[in-house]
Specification:
By secondary structure, this protein is α/β, with parallel strands linked by helices. It has 2 domains: 223 residues, no CATH class; 75 residues, no CATH class. It has 12 helices and 11 strands. A hairpin with a 4-residue loop joins strand 1 and strand 2. It is globular.
């Protein structure tokens, strides 16, 4: 029969779709925009009109000022920080007068930056969890996560039968949470994706390339050329974050391949997608491991055995 799979972002408390994604063989080869959820958004510095706070704005003393406007700019800044989660509220307050506009410049920028980052899965702990999993990767669920899930579920976390516990506490809670209160992050459509492209990093040159990064292990998978876009990165991700105790992946392949896929070495790690130029700028001097050859080999091998060779990780080669 095969097992169904859940694609979960633990830190965002979200899953793909309203239930499971179905059998792996049913979704693995889809060219979809799920991978764009992992793009680390970049809000251009141009959105910040003034990098410095004017601590001595010139007040118009010809008219009586509202009491709030007589406060020092530092206090005005503290007030607007309470609104940072809602950009519209920050903007409305900023537009009340030139004094507020000057005092809230940085807060407007931070508020605008917060929204796309909150919607993104970049840097979140990810797992593609099989329905026959009997445990979770070590350390994936922390004690703080367990307390939070238990509190939101409102139930005691005791799962016992006469002969002892039926399943690990963390796995049981994650399953219940994913159905009870994890929201469904709908698969991005072309229209939704285009609306968010304002906050995608811009390629610096034709030599720039998209890459999938494991921020926990400092490993990456990178495309061969920019024109290849993000093609193949979602397939690479599936082979790296899938987790189960049953090797039924509903795909034609050697047993050792399916055994390796269900023990994804990145399952539960913090992952994002960005451009090589952004990575080089952010992680200058750090030592990262390129695992592209191995991962691309797995994807291309699966294509030959399961998809009649119609898919290639770097299709532009």
């Amino acid at each position: 029969m095969g097992q169904s799979w859940k694609f979960i972002s633990l830190d965002n408390a979200q899953r793909i779709g309203h239930g499971s994604m179905g059998k792996m063989g049913e979704f693995f080869w889809e060219e979809n925009s799920i991978i764009t959820l992992l793009i680390a958004p970049v809000v251009p510095a141009s959105f910040l009109e003034d990098d410095t706070l004017d601590l001595s704005p010139k007040l118009d003393t010809s008219n009586e000022l509202a009491p709030i406007l007589t406060l020092p700019p530092e206090l005005l800044l503290l007030i607007t920080e309470y609104l940072i989660s809602n950009y519209v509220d920050v903007l409305c307050l900023s537009l009340t007068c030139p004094i507020m506009w000057s005092a809230t410049s940085r807060i407007r920028y931070l508020s605008l930056s917060t929204k796309p980052r909150r919607q993104s899965w970049a840097g979140s702990r990810l797992i593609c969890l099989g329905g026959y999993a009997e445990d979770l990767p070590t350390g994936f669920i922390t004690s703080s996560d367990l307390e939070q899930m238990d509190k939101k579920l409102g139930n005691p976390t005791v799962f016992e039968e006469d002969d002892g516990p039926t399943e690990p506490r963390d796995l049981a809670l994650l399953y219940r949470a994913s159905y009870a209160y994890f929201s469904a992050a709908e698969r991005p459509t072309i229209s939704r994706t285009s609306e968010k492209r304002d906050f995608w990093p811009e390629p610096k040159s034709n030599g720039d390339r998209w890459m999938l990064r494991n921020l926990s292990k400092k490993e990456f998978v990178i495309k061969n050329r920019l024109k290849g876009g993000m093609h193949g990165l979602i397939q690479a991700l599936y082979t790296l974050i899938s987790w189960s105790d049953d090797a039924s992946i509903s795909m034609q392949c050697e047993e050792e391949v399916s055994d390796a896929i269900i023990c994804g070495p990145w399952a539960g790690d913090r992952i994002d997608v960005t451009l090589r130029s952004v990575h080089d700028s952010e992680k200058e001097g750090e030592s990262w491991k390129d695992i592209t050859v191995r991962v691309a080999g797995v994807v291309d091998g699966l294509s030959k055995s399961d998809y009649r060779g119609k898919f290639k990780f770097d299709e532009d080669d």
